[in-house]
Design a protein that fits this description.
The chain has 113 residues and is mainly alpha-helical. The chain has 2 domains: 1-49; 52-108. 87% of the residues lie in helices and 0% in strands. The longest helix is centred in the C-terminal third of the chain and has 51 residues, at 53-103. The chain is flat. The termini are far apart.
Length: 113
């Protein structure tokens, strides 16, 4: 009986080893394919680059405008966030003050009957 148990473990171990090897092979192939895609994309970008000076100047001017716009937008976003935080703090303070006034108000207390 022990021989049959050992024989059963052998093919399972071999199948597991084969599966691990197949997975490694597939991962290596996937890495190679991704590297090839990245290389081809870089080549396309280099080929697509225009060497005409007026066009290149226009492209660079556009890129500078975009970078400047992003800087201004991020600065405005930070300023807006600070302003909203300040407004929220002021609103919370006013709400606490109104609650205190309401709870101490004569209007809130029920009349004695």
């Amino acid at each position: 009986m022990s021989k049959s148990a050992g024989a059963a473990a052998g093919p399972t171990a071999a199948a597991a080893a084969a599966a691990v090897q197949k997975q490694k092979t597939l991962l290596q192939k996937a890495d190679a394919d991704v590297s090839s895609l990245v290389d081809n994309f870089a080549a396309f970008i280099n080929i697509a680059r225009v060497n005409d000076p007026p066009v290149r100047n226009t492209q660079e001017a556009f890129q500078m405008d975009m970078r400047g716009s992003r800087l201004i937008l991020s600065q405005q976003a930070e300023g807006t966030e600070r302003m909203l935080e300040r407004i929220g703090q002021e609103a919370a303070g006013s709400l606490k003050e109104l609650e205190a006034h309401y709870y101490s108000s004569v209007v809130r207390t029920p009349p004695d009957e």
